[in-house]
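Running this now, will post back.
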Amino acid sequence: MTDPTLLDKIDLHLIRVLNTVLSEGSVSRAAVRLGMHQPAVSAALRRLRELAGDPLLVRSGAGMVATDAGLRMIEPSARILRDAEQLFSDARGFDPARSEVTFRLAASDYLDPFFLPQLVARIKAQAPQARIDMRGLSDDANYQTHLAEGRVDVVIGNWASPPDELHMGRLFGDEVVCLVSNEHPACRRGWEPDTWLAAEHIAPTPTHPGAKGFIDEHLASLGLARKVVARCPHFGLIPAMVASSLLVLTTGRQYCDRFVSQLPVQVLPCPIEFPRMMYYQLWHERTHASASGRWLRERVRDVALSLRPEAARLV
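Update: finished.
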């Protein structure tokens, strides 16, 4: 059980002295690093020894070494100092070159397949010590709650109507097209709305129970429904499934175009008119003023700008 009276006796300055003395193994060298007089460091070490109930640093030959208890305190004290620096440095400004912040992103895999690899590369090039935690938009993920609770910093995906209570940054718009195998009859004959609706379609597994997704929501608004015979939770695997079957994938052109040179597939216009698929990044008020949060959102925007074709800029 934590002793509140003990915590009252510990301040950040003492933690800094503790870490420096133990790291240097010398009171005099610690005093130089800390910019303090040696008697002041010795007095702080006495206080630390009383609080720890351990000598922390003992003589060994001509020098001094940390005790077992002292050795166990080096990394925790360093971590406390790093966390304390980050606690206030983010409010003052964000230095990507030095920060050890963890960026938490949730992203739809409907994105351009190059998007997340490029984003990770850009973050690590500019913030080499940062950590990146990426998550999918799964059927059990309530991204609005995760943003509000701080489990996710940014959510990236496409929505017909993004939630009003979240901040939103538009990334790009994309034309809805169809991806089919080179052997699909529509490559030779083309298709009308009725033949497209009656074709065998493959679609992503809904992100949550009852969700229809962008394509089927629009069709429902027109009083139409297509014939979905296959669903897959891994969007990145669907183009290969299309290439070896007569299934039809209907999604954004930017995604489909990436696979034309890799697989025996073609991109065909959709015979039913759809609004453009709009891709956004969403974030909560909690991180709106955060310097590291702003930096992350700027990297997301920059990658979107670098990848999208000229046609997708017309949003």
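Confidence is low (pLDDT under 50) at residues 311-315. More later if anyone needs it.
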